[in-house]
Amino acid sequence: MKRLLRPAYWWPGMDDAITNHVKFCLPCQDSAKAHKTIVPDGGPIDKPDRPWSKLAIDITGPFATAPHNQRFIVVLIDYFSSYPEVLLTGETSSPRIIKWPTEVFDRFGNPDTLVSDNGSSFVSKEMKEFLATRDIRQECVPLYEPRRNGKVEVFNRTLKHAAQTFEADKKSFENGIQQTLFSYRATPNEKRDSPAKLLLGRNIRTNFQPRQSMDKPGTIPDFMANRGHHTTFRKHFKVGDLHVVRIRLLHVPKGKSPFTSTFRIDKVVGNFTYRLDNGKIWTARNLVPFRHPPPAAVEVSGHA
Q1: With CB atoms 3.0 to 4.6 Å apart as the test, which of 73, 80, 86, 164 could cross-link to 31 if both were Cys?
Q2: How far apart are CA 279 and CA 135, in angstroms?
Q3: Which molecular function terms from Gene Ontology are attached (predicted)?
Q4: CATH class of residue range 2-225
Q5: Rounded CA separation 166/29 (Å)
Q6: 284 DSSP 8-state letter
C-alpha cells in the first residue's frame, strides 16, 4: 500500500499512518501472510533480458471459497516484469488451458520460452503441438521441485493470502482476484518500476493516484524511497496484556482463514506456554496477536 500511495501523496507521518491501518485491518490479519520469499535453487529460471521473453505457467487451487466454475486459477507470469495474467476456471484439461494462452498471446505476442511443471495439462500432446505451432520452447522443472519455478509459486502464494483476505472482508471471489491483480500490476518494486511499467512501458493509474501525478519524476521523496522496512514479531505474552490471541489451525482449505475465533490469555503456565480463557493450553508458536482497531482510527480505502 505504501508503494501505491507514495507516487501521488505525502503527509507527515504517512508511513506510520499506513502501517497502523494495515496492522489493525481485520481482513489483513485474517490472511496470515508470511513474508518468507521462495528462493529458487537453480534450474531453468534465469531472468531474461527483455519483457515477455520467458513466461511461467501454473495451476493453483482448488479454492474452497470460490464458485465451482472458478475453483482453479491458471497463472501466467512474465519473468522479466513479474506482470501476471490469470484465468478462473473449473476445468483444467489441456484444451481449456490452451484456449486461454491463445487469447493472451494474441494480445501480447508469443514468448520465447514457457516454463511449467510436469502436470498433465502442460505435458500433453495437445500442449506440445500448440507450443510448436507458435515456435515457443517449453522448459519443465524437475519432478517434485516446484520451488524451481519460484516466480509463479511466489505469486500463487500471493493469490492464496489475498483469497483469505477478501473472504474475511465478504468480497466475491472474482472481484477480489481482480482487485489483487490490479494492485499487484501497479505496485512499484524496490527500483520504483511496477510490473505494468516494465511490460507496457507506462504506469497504470490506480484509485490512489490523481491524473496529473502519473509518470512525473520526483514524486517520491528520496528519503522515503531509500528507506528499508522491517517487521518484528514478539511471541512472549503476559496475563493482563491487551493482546487477544487466535489459534493457528494446521489444515485449512485454500481461501479460508487459518485462525479460530479470539481468546484471551488467562494464565502463564510456563516458558512461552499459556492457558487461554477456554481452559486449553497452547505454546506461543501456536498463538497469533489479534489487534482491535483503535476507536478513533482513520479509515483508509483499500487493504494490503
Answers
A1: 164
A2: 64
A3: nucleic acid binding
A4: alpha beta
A5: 11
A6: G
